[in-house]
Amino acid sequence: MESDIQVKEQIRHIGHEIRNNLSICDIYSEILKKHLAKENIKNPSIDNAINCIQNAVKLIGNNLLDLKSMGDVVIHTCDSDKLIQACVEMSKIYAKDKNIDFVTKLTPDVKIEVDENKFQGCIINILKNAVEAIVNKGTIKITSAIDSDFLSIRISNDGTPVPQDKIEQIFNDGFTTKSSGSGVGLYLCKKNIEAMNGSIELICSNETNTEFNIKIPKIL
């Protein structure tokens, strides 16, 4: 038990330090961009380098959510639409080299009680998987609607489907269909969503649509 506490403290401290250094990189990237614009200096190589740095900062920031997902559940009251939209914006970095439309239709002003980091980590993980399923061009849809005492969040894409013989295994620890995957993402999603008294399931996966449904209790 004591070792678990120490590990969680180390995760928190490491995450904090990484985020501080990321902020420095992001700030100085913006300073460089403003300085170049002020001096009317146009250099495609420098512009590309700055964009790469800023994209890396965003990606690492998203990865930090995975690190935080390993800690205890800490529940807060959040605005669902604002939280989900923030996840969508963070996830767009994964689609920078593809022609993907993100279509959102969110029910406004619904309060949910979730661990913000774990909830965001789950949504971003599913959106990232959706981006990876689309080869070059496609659409990712994110909708939310009230379903009895829950908020139902559906995320779908029109990319490559999950193999039918693998569907029942996708939430298993260590299972992956990717050559470079760890098989931890969806397992943690399910574990963390259930810890927030919610549920997650794969509704369907075929040649035209792959859709996940996440249900989180809403505040009555």
Structure notes:
This protein is α+β, with helices and mostly antiparallel strands and 220 residues long. It has 2 domains: 67 residues; 142 residues, 2-Layer Sandwich (Heat Shock Protein 90), CATH 3.30.565.10. Helices cover 47% and strands 22% of the residues. It contains 5 helices and 7 strands; from the N terminus they run ααβαββαββαββ. A 5-stranded mixed sheet has the order 2-4-5-7-6, with helices on one face. The protein has a two-stranded antiparallel ribbon with strand order 1-3. The longest helix has 37 residues. The mean pLDDT is 86.
What's this model, at a glance?
This protein has helices at 2-38, 44-68, 80-91, 116-133, 185-195; strands at 76-79, 99-105, 111-114, 137-147, 150-157, 199-205, 210-217. With 220 residues, the protein is an alpha+beta fold.
- Give the strand order, joined by hyphens, for the main sheet: 2-4-5-7-6
The counted number of beta strands is: 7
Form type: globular
* Class per helix and strand makeup: alpha+beta
Tell me which oligomeric state these chains represent: single chain
Helix run count: 5
CATH superfamily of the largest domain: Histidine kinase-like ATPase, C-terminal domain
Helix content: 40-55%
Q: Tell me the distance between the termini.
A: 36 Å
The ordered string of helix (H) and strand (E) elements is HHEHEEHEEHEE
What attributes characterize this protein structure?
7 strands, alpha+beta, 220 residues, five-stranded mixed beta sheet, 22% strand, 5 helices, 2 domains
